[in-house]
């Protein structure tokens, strides 16, 4: 099983995961809560707009986010671990990514539901990482220290509307963290992955399955054997859909160890340096890069420099 996991992650970077043990009633509850969230009056959602948060938490309305400098057509709420702020003088700017969430007053059940979702998916993600480490010739717990105490997980609850004025639900990008577990409404369309030899491959949602995606930090940690795969959401033929990506990330100041791969695997690796989009080894710095680009309005509102 571990060999198959290693190979499919190496060859494609995306795959479906079943048999994960996340209860189906919890999954249904998350999707149902997402529908109730986006059905709230626009004024209620705007009351928790991300631009109000120095921690990049809260609601983003349609057209309020950028990828590759182009407008994404989705609405969403960004939620992280509920902790006190630690950003400020003497700290790296990325420490502002820790802080409290903003919750919609009309959905009082959401915080508790998100806590349950985080706990369930954290177990899945940690298990996956341990299997990957072992499959790559390292101790299963080699990554554990980076996730101790205060992992900087991120949950997005996203709605892609039908009849959008653009095909870009979210533009082509790679995830800045370690791995992503994506829940999408069964049967929904729109997610596409860059094929190994170019072109886009459709990844329709499947009942009971998560879509797993490799992040940039795992690419760095494996010397490019596992690669962060470029992906996007294309709305051209998509119906209204809900998507809930879970980004499993280490502490903001953590740096994943670089694994010593067996020679046959190391020979199949190799990084892809891109001076215009470097991968920073410290997670917080890599995440900060992505947040500033995606939400320049938040950066401007709180005096953050895009070059910081």
Automatic annotation (TrEMBL):
It comes from the Bacteria. InterPro entries: DIOX_N (IPR026992), IPNS-like_FE2OG_OXY (IPR044861), IPNS-like_sf (IPR027443), Iron_ascorbate_oxido_reductase (IPR050231), Oxoglu/Fe-dep_dioxygenase_dom (IPR005123). Pathway: Antibiotic biosynthesis. Pfam families: 2OG-FeII_Oxy, DIOX_N. The keyword ATP-binding does not apply. Keywords: Antibiotic biosynthesis, Iron, Metal-binding, Oxidoreductase. Coiled coil: none annotated. Residues 150-250 form the Fe2OG dioxygenase domain. PANTHER family: 2-OXOGLUTARATE (2OG) AND FE(II)-DEPENDENT OXYGENASE SUPERFAMILY PROTEIN-RELATED. Belongs to the iron/ascorbate-dependent oxidoreductase family. This is 2-oxobutyrate oxidase. The lineage of its organism: Bacteria, Bacillati, Actinomycetota, Actinomycetes, Mycobacteriales.
